[in-house]
Each structure stands twice: as C-alpha cells, then as structure tokens.
Design goal:
The complex is a heterodimer of chains A (456) and B (226).
Chain A (H helix, E strand, L loop, with lengths): L4 H5 L8 H13 L5 H27 L14 H25 L9 H22 L25 H34 L3 H10 L7 H34 L11 H27 L8 H31 L3 H13 L3 H13 L7 H4 L2 H28 L14 H24 L5 H11 L7
Chain B lengths: L3 H5 L8 E7 L6 E7 L8 H5 L5 E3 L5 E3 L9 H5 L6 E2 L30 E2 L5 H13 L16 H5 L16 H6 L4 E2 L12 E3 L20 E3 L2
Antiparallel strand pairs in B: 1-2, 3-4, 5-6, 7-8, 8-9
Classes of the chains: A mainly alpha (456), B alpha+beta (226).
C-alpha cells in the first residue's frame, strides 16, 4: 500500500481549487466553443444516425428478412448487439455506484461520462430487441396489463425477464444519473450566461440550493441507489445470459453463463470507458484530472475481467467435454476448427486473451495511445465473442440436415454502424450541455485531499 | 412461395422436410430418408421460451401456433432441436410479394400467415377439426369419439406407400397405437426428453448381396404419427 499512496495523491493537481475546478469544467460548456474534434465526431455520428434511421425505416416497412438470419440461425446481429451494448453499459454503473460504495477516489473524474456512456449504451441495447422482432409494433404484448385479448406474458420465458431487466436498468440509470447531475445542474444554472441556459438548467435543477438538508438527502439517496446498483450490475447481464442459458441449444446451455457474461460485460464496458477517457481527455484537455493513473486503474479493471473471461472460455470447453454429450463437444470442434466461423473464434481469442495480456505492463496501461488501441481491440473481441456464441451454436446443432451458415448482410452492418452513430451523437450532445466531469464529486475530492478548501 | 433467392438464404417455408442419410461407398451410396415435421412434443422446448405464449399445447396434445400472438422473437425456433419451424421473414402472402399466390389459390381452411410470424406443421388441425365438427353434427351416437382412420393428414394422404399413420394415441386399439407398440418404434432425439408425439419405425434391411447391388432401389421404411 505504501507504494500506491503517492499515486492516490496524484489523482488531482495540487493547485486545483474548488472554484478553479468548477470554473474550468463548467466553462467547457458555458464559455468555450466546442473543439474542432467535437464537430468532426459529431458530423460523423450524425451521418451514421441518418443511416440508422433510414435502415430502421426500411426494416420496419419490409421485415427482418433483410438481415443475415435464417432457420437454423434465427438470431443474428440484433441479439449480438443487444448483449454487446448492455455489456458496455455495465462498467458505467459499476464505476458510478460500486466504486462509490467502495470509496475509490479515482471515480470522481470519470464517473460522469461513464454514466452517460451507460445511459446511451442502454438506449442502443434497448432498441435492438425491437429491431430483432418480426412484428415490432406488437412489442407491448410483453406488458402485463389487463386486456380484452386474454394476453398475459408467459413468465417462464427468459425474454420476459429480459424485458423487465433492461427496462429496470434503463429507469435506474436514468434516475441515478439525474440525481448525480442535480447539484451540477444548479451550478450551471448559476453560471449560465444566456437566459435560455439559466431557465433550462434552473428547471432541471429542481430548485437545488446547496442547502445542508439537500446534501444530506442527496447523500442518502445516492447511497441507497448505489446499493441497488451492485445487484443490478450482476442481475441484468445475468438475465440477458439466461436468454441463451435457459435454452437446450448446445453452446447456449451452460450454467456458467451468468457470471461469465457479467465478467464479459464489465470487460467490454471498462474497455469502452478507457476508450472514452483517452478520447475525452484529448478532446477537452482533461489530462490534469483524467490522469495516467486513472488510465492505469481502468486498465487494471480490464485486466481483472479479462482474466475471468479467459477462465470462462476454458471452463466452457471443459464443461462441454465433461458433459460427455457429443452435441456439446461438437460445438467446440465446429467453433474452433471445422466450422465456417472458426476464424471468428480465433480472432476473438487473439484479442480477448492475447492482446489483453499487454495490460499486465504498467507502461502500456499508462500510455494513452496503447490503452486506446487495446480498448478498441477488446471492444471488437467482445463483440466477436457474442457473435460466435449467437451464430455458431444453432448453425450446427442436433440434426446435420439443418446445418447452415449465414453471414450478416449490408443491412446488419448499416444498423450496427447506425447504432454506434446514435451512441456517439447522444454522447456528443451530452458533452455540450452537461458537465462531462462531476463538479460536486471533484469538489468533494479536493476537499478530502485538503488542497483547495476554503476557496469554494 | 418465396422464390429461389430466398430459399438459397435458408428462408424456405416448407413444413415437412425429407432428411437423407447416406451409407456405403460415395460412388454408390445407399440412402435412407426420413420425413421430418413438427414432432408435437409433449415436453416441447419451443413452448416455455415464448414470451407471448404464442405456441401452446391443446388439450389433445397438439402443439399449436397462435399466429395472432406471435411477435416474432424466433426463440421457439432457436430452441427446437429438430429445427422444423419456419419464419415469415417478409410478408410472403401479400399481393405485392414477389411470388405470392392469388387468394383463390389459398386453402380456405388454413390461416394465411403475415410477415414476422412463426409457422410450422399443425398436424393438419383444420382436417382434425373438420372431422370433429362433422362427427358432432351427425345423428349417429359416437360419444364424441372419432373413428380410427377418419382423420387423414395431408402428408398421409399424399404418401403412396401409406408410411404415415395418424390417430389417437390415447386409444390402445387404434392403428397408430399398435404401430407405436412395435419394438422398432423410436423417437427422434428422444434422449432430450422432448417426448415427441411423432415417432418412427426403424428400417430393417436384409439384402441378399447375391441379388443386385446395394444401391438397388430397395427402401423399406415406415413412419408412424400419433
């Protein structure tokens, strides 16, 4: 611990004061124009968003046949992407809530954009089940409401659990993010220069005055919600994994799936946090508060979850072999060696097992460019992991007469790229209207470190 | 009808497929074939995974698709070990669909499926119900029972060798029950405990190698439906 102590101290520049932090971060919205890089990313994401809207319009008017799916492989990229996006969301929740409960100082400067990442990733994840459905206009049949059709959800289906899990997660993340924004919205209300800004932030701030009673309630509510978040992180992806695990499909039906998927979710989620941290600190020159030590810690989290995921890969194969079932054993022979999808598996292993080992080196974890490249590799690797689970399991299951190979179509890729655009678009808008670093968490950290007390 | 391009993508819509298994030399293989439709499992993997309860057991043991409820998650097909379900990837029955048949060519007794819903072999539920309704309307006393052999499914009707038998498995005296009692009777993927209602009779062959080659058209195979 004694070696770690200086690191902790260097999470903040010694000269940063309460007022300085507030002026700096809120100034990024109220005073400074957006950097050129913001406009470039915003333009690219807007184009992709248009692609998304056009694809969805065509999809909803024609049918899901435009995607690369068929019978044996009736689940394709929409399911892959649901799992991928929900996984990305998880690291945001873990950082904002679990690291709060465990009193990790390094969360203060990264939790806000991690929460925003979680929020927008859930939006993308929540859209994909609709994109997946054959008749999306009837999605509301999932709601347990009294109706004249005699319909009621079929509660044994994991898709019903899934619907409630994702809805709950969306509502939870919205409330948690809004709650943590409240004090900052009040700051922005007081600092906004335009009348429009004053009125809109004022309305959103719900009359927050920074009163001691407000803070006491705020602390209590945050702790309660953070306490809820820890089980939610495990439950949501756990339930998403039961969509696969509850079936009888070899390659889906494994009891290790819930913990394996939670670890996988956090692995890809921390990779995305690393990606955003590197990009945002470069875009907005946040190097002083999103330090290389932060990158180091994010890299360590990635490494922890990479180890669990890598272990799960071995256990998945061991379980298949140990089951003694030919069908289960063949899934791995097909995935790894014989099948058309084998290159996907090997690429996944190269990225998630191979590249992830670079995170053992402190120099690499603290190098923003290296971490960025590893993060992109891991995000691709975790996407491929979901791809190969969804595609390879049913493409060659029980009866050889049904075996078939199907690949994503241009529409699959258009929708996927479009959802990335939606995510980027929402994030870019968020960065321009909300503080990308939590002002009150930073002030609290400064107060605890004793650097700028009395200057607020 | 969906057309060649759709069939090549694995979007074929047939409810019965003929699986072929080959043995012997690749130059002169002998072939065993097996027609596979929905097995109407008692312990059906498709049923418990549907969030909308769109595929359900009837009181008589049919595994029924309720098209109106189906929202098209396709989970039933993923979980079907026989992969006998077929999905309407597009609206294939519309006037504007590339290969649609005109409404007069539709079977008036069978529901026309819209895009985005799952479908599969129904055991010809329309024929079953037609016979039941007719039986209920006769003056002859029948105790609500249908005579064995009164219901003939479409595949059974079309089979020239009478290899498909359909009937009441709850009644021991029916032909299907007698066939199922044979020691040659087996379930497809029975070890999955899906308890399929359709069962098959194993082919027993004893060709005399002195007569003809092994690939002579000599296929003896029965199929029992219940």
């Amino acid at each position: 611990m004694s070696r770690a102590e200086p690191d902790r101290e260097r999470l903040l520049p010694a000269t940063l004061t309460h007022g300085g932090a507030t002026r700096w971060i809120s100034g990024l919205i109220t005073d400074k124009p957006a950097p050129l890089s913001w406009f470039v990313i915003f333009a690219v994401c807007s184009v992709l968003l248009v692609v998304f809207l056009v694809s969805l319009t065509y999809l909803f008017s024609v049918g899901v046949g435009i995607f690369g799916i068929n019978i044996p492989v009736a689940w394709g990229l929409p399911i892959t992407n649901t799992i991928w996006w929900i996984g990305i969301a998880h690291a945001g929740t873990l950082i904002s809530a679990v690291l709060l409960l465990t009193r990790q100082d390094w969360r203060a400067s990264i939790n806000r954009f991690a929460e925003a990442m979680a929020m927008f990733a859930i939006v993308c994840a929540g859209l994909y089940p609709l994109i997946h459905l054959g008749r999306p206009s009837f999605w509301y049949y999932l709601l347990p409401y009294p109706n004249t059709m005699g319909l009621w959800p079929q509660w044994r289906s994991p898709l019903v659990w899934d619907f409630f899990a994702i809805t709950m997660y969306l509502l939870f993340t919205m409330s948690f993010m809004y709650l943590s924004l409240l004090p900052d919205l009040a700051t922005l209300r007081d600092r906004a220069k335009s009348r429009l800004g004053q009125v809109s932030y004022g309305l959103l701030a719900l009359a927050w005055r920074g009163d001691a009673a407000h803070w006491a309630r705020y602390q209590r509510a945050t702790l309660i919600l953070a306490g809820c978040a820890a089980p939610i992180v495990c439950v949501v992806t756990g339930i998403v994994s039961t969509d696969l695990a509850v079936s009888i499909v070899p390659g889906y039906h494994f009891t290790i799936f819930p913990p394996y998927f939670v670890a996988g979710a956090l692995f890809s989620g921390f990779a995305t946090v690393a990606l955003l941290a590197v990009v945002l600190r470069w875009m907005f020159s946040l190097q002083a508060i999103v330090t290389r030590i932060h990158l180091d810690y994010i890299g360590r989290m990635m490494l922890v979850f990479a180890m669990i995921v890598d272990y799960a890969y071995t256990q998945e194969m061991f379980t298949a072999w140990y089951s003694g079932e030919d069908h289960y054993r063949y899934v791995y022979i097909d995935r790894i060696w014989e099948g058309a999808y084998a290159p996907v598996w090997w690429t996944m292993i190269a990225l998630n097992v191979g590249v992830a080992q670079l995170l053992w080196f402190k120099g690499i974890r603290r190098n923003p460019v290296a971490l960025l490249l590893i993060a992109i590799a891991v995000d691709i690797g975790m996407w491929l992991e979901r791809f190969q689970i969804v595609f390879t399991s049913t493409h060659a299951d029980y009866m050889p007469s049904n075996w078939d190979v199907v690949w994503p179509t241009a529409w699959d890729w258009a929708v996927y790229a479009g959802s990335l655009g939606l995510f980027g678009f929402l994030l870019m808008v968020f960065l321009r209207v909300m503080p990308m670093v939590s002002l009150h968490d930073m002030r609290e950290l400064i107060a605890r470190k004793g650097a700028g007390s009395g200057h607020g | 009808m969906v057309g060649k391009s759709e069939v090549l993508r694995g979007h074929d819509m047939h409810w019965i497929r003929i699986d072929r298994y080959f043995e012997g030399q690749p130059e002169a293989p002998s072939m065993i074939f097996q027609p596979v439709t929905c097995m109407h499992c008692e312990n059906a993997p498709c049923e418990y995974v549907c969030p909308f309860a769109a595929t359900q057991h009837s009181a008589e043991g049919l595994n029924e698709m309720i098209y109106n409820r189906c929202v098209g998650t396709r989970y039933c097909s993923q979980n079907c070990p026989y992969k006998v379900r077929r999905f309407n990837w597009f609206t294939y029955t519309d006037k504007d669909a590339p290969h649609s048949t005109p409404p007069p060519a539709h079977n008036p007794d069978v529901t026309v499926r819209s895009g985005g819903v799952m479908e599969k072999c129904t055991y010809c539920v329309q024929r079953i119900n037609a016979v039941k309704i007719a039986a209920a309307r006769t003056d002859e006393p029948n105790n609500g029972r249908i005579a064995d052999g009164a219901i003939v499914t479409a595949c059974q009707q079309a089979c020239p060798t009478d290899a498909i038998v359909f009937g009441d498995v709850a009644d021991e005296t029916t032909r299907v029950s007698r066939e199922k009692a044979s020691p040659l009777d087996y379930d497809l993927l029975g070890d999955l405990n899906t308890r399929p209602r359709t069962s098959y009779k194993a082919a027993v062959r004893n060709p005399n190698p002195a007569i003809g080659s092994p690939d002579a058209p000599y296929v003896e195979k029965g199929r029992v439906k219940g």
